[in-house]
Amino acid sequence: MATPPALGIGLTYHPPLEPFLESHSDLVDVLEIEPQTLWMPAAGDGKRFTTAAGAMERLAAFPQTKLVHSVGTPVGGSRLGDSRQFPLLRETIARLGSPWCSEHLSFSVAGSRDEPFFASFMLPPRQTQAGVERAATSVKQLSHELGAPFAIETGVSYLRPRPEEMRDGEFVAAVAEAADCGVLLDVHNIWTNEQNGRQSVRSYLADLPLERVWELHLAGGQEHAGYWLDAHSEGIPEAVLSIAAKVLRRTPNVGALIFELMPEHIARLGDDGIRRQAEALHRLWDTRHRRRTNNAAPRVKPALADRTPEPDPTGIDPRSWEDTLGALAIGRDVEGRLAEELEADPGLEIVRDLVSVARAGMLTASLKLTMRLLLLQLGEQRVREIMEAFWKQTAPEPFAGDEGLAFADYLHSRELAPPHLEDVLSFEVAVLRAAISGETTRVHFHADPGELLGALAEGRLPTSTRHEYDLEISGKSVG
Amino acid sequence: MADVTPNFELNNRAVTVRLPRDAAYDLKKIQTIQRTILGQLGHLGCCSGFDIRWDYETEFIVSKAGKVNHLGPQAVDKALGAGA
Lengths: 479, 84
Known about the structure:
The structure holds two protein chains of two kinds. Chain A is an alpha/beta fold. Chain A has two domains: 8-304, TIM Barrel (Alpha-Beta Barrel); 367-478, no CATH class. Helix content of chain A is 43%, strand content 17%. In chain A, helix 5 (168-179) packs parallel to helix 7. Chain A starts with 7 loop residues before the first strand and ends with a strand. Chain B is 31% helix and 11% strand. Chain B has three helices and two strands, in the order E-E-H-H-H. Chain B has a two-stranded antiparallel sheet. In chain B, strand 1 (8-10) and strand 2 (13-18) form a beta hairpin. At the A-B interface, strand 3, strand 8, strand 12, helix 12 and helix 13 of A face strand 2, helix 1, helix 2 and helix 3 of B. Strand 16 of chain A pairs antiparallel with strand 2 of chain B, so a sheet runs across the interface.
């Protein structure tokens, strides 16, 4: 097993963090990159992926060490994500010199080989011996494709623990040993799981092969409907910092501590808030176990992979678990005993809520003016009904641009007739198509486009003076 | 045809807005709007929590009568449930 270099503390990179990084460069040793957030699908040519123009150059120019943390092909299930991601992931890792890379021990793709669908959420895998074997196979496959030392990230589950399942920590340990990989221990995730009634942090850590822990994630969250959410919306709770301090005394191979914050919350936390988090991580890092000391070396556990597996009395294989939970998560109707059991779990409703707001968020990002027009003219309740009908019949897309185009098709099929919808929707679709595939589209406006789009940008209904204009929108490759 | 230099780069393309007929029309407003309002089009990030972007919009636009609340820190706090 590889031993990672000791890099220090860092932040998950998002473009809005750049001013902070420029003014506090000495506080941050590592930038963790989630490559797929900077990608777009490239239409044509087998629909490959491309990185935003200039993004790699900008990232490479930062003085910090870069760690690649993939978010598009989790390894906890039977199926990886779209394999057309692999070459660009591998290229990104090599270009940025990432000493190791990581992915989530979750799943997000389900369905048949002919009709796979994306669940829009990192869902918990089947925690049985069969699940261990499937996940270990996925880890080995992705690790081979990416060509770098590989770590699995410990996930969140809002579901209740099931009696036939392995404990959360036991499952992670078994996969890590079977695949011989590192562990990215997300301290906020395992604390969140404990808050929501799953395995205690103490028990979880007792299950883990701590010498395999290469990296810690720390974050803050929020409460929702009686659950604690791994929302990456706040500073790190004291309880999570305290757990991290204890973990670091027993993990000699930790190479990085990363603070995670979603981009939408960066401005609210502000430079001072982010600086305080970085300083807290530095205090942790300075007190970490020095790997050359031998008085606190973790006990090396016997290999779990060599143990006789417990038979699964339910007979629910990993594929059935993934297909059922994945379909339920995106609001499909599923029959059968497992579906009934999952429907009875209140955690499923939390997952559905989070999938819904993620999908609504993608529409907000890709069709902002159209969504504003609909909200202004139809009201929030009616718009929500339209979105829910769309979600019921269309599986989520991994990329916001594609989700926006799919929703545009749906709106056309509904033949909704609020004033100006046709103009605004056609304009935004033309911009998306220009950006994704370089298409040139002529859009006919029945109103002054500047007045119409300007009003919506300011959050007000446009005036309805009639004019006739044509705009031509095109995209030209610059990368 | 009124020609305009590429007004923003998205993905790996420069997206250009042109006005085929009326050369006198001022396109800068449209370009500025499109440059500033388009959100992230890539993959969702690593998070198992609430995506706040929809709440941003519904805090921004509060009624179909056209009453507007401009988004500020209080609106975000409210959306997050802070101080409730």
